[in-house]
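Page 42, continued from yesterday. The earlier attempt failed because a stray header line got pasted into the input along with the sequence. Redoing it now with the clean sequence only.
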Amino acid sequence: FARGLAVALGAPCVGVSTLMALALEAGAEGVRAAVIPAPLGVFAAVYDAGVSVRAPAFVPDAEIASLPVDTASWRGPGAAAFGGIVTPAPDVVALARLGARLVPAAHPPTPAYLCAPDAKLPST
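This time it went through. Structure tokens are written below.
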């Protein structure tokens, strides 16, 4: 919707993933991370000084130890397991501030889905 509106208005538009918005909602200083629990693992992203060091992706249970559990400031629905602050959704004001700082060419508004869609085309 935002991309379509931006095209219609001739306005710039940036893409911000939910994990990026959660991780950076309290600022970009230091190592910041976000986590969303999932069956058999988590979806996680890690940023250092606002720069992605681990892109939003699924991390299986067997690889969770590879995440910077002790060195990052964690946020998100699954943050309690990482000693972080549980936040069910990104703060909209922080999201707007983050989006205003991002360069549209470096952060295009392309969809990035963590899970495959549940909707299926009908078979013919």
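Notes: The CA atoms of residues 43 and 58 lie 4 Å apart.
Reminder to self: strip header lines before submitting.
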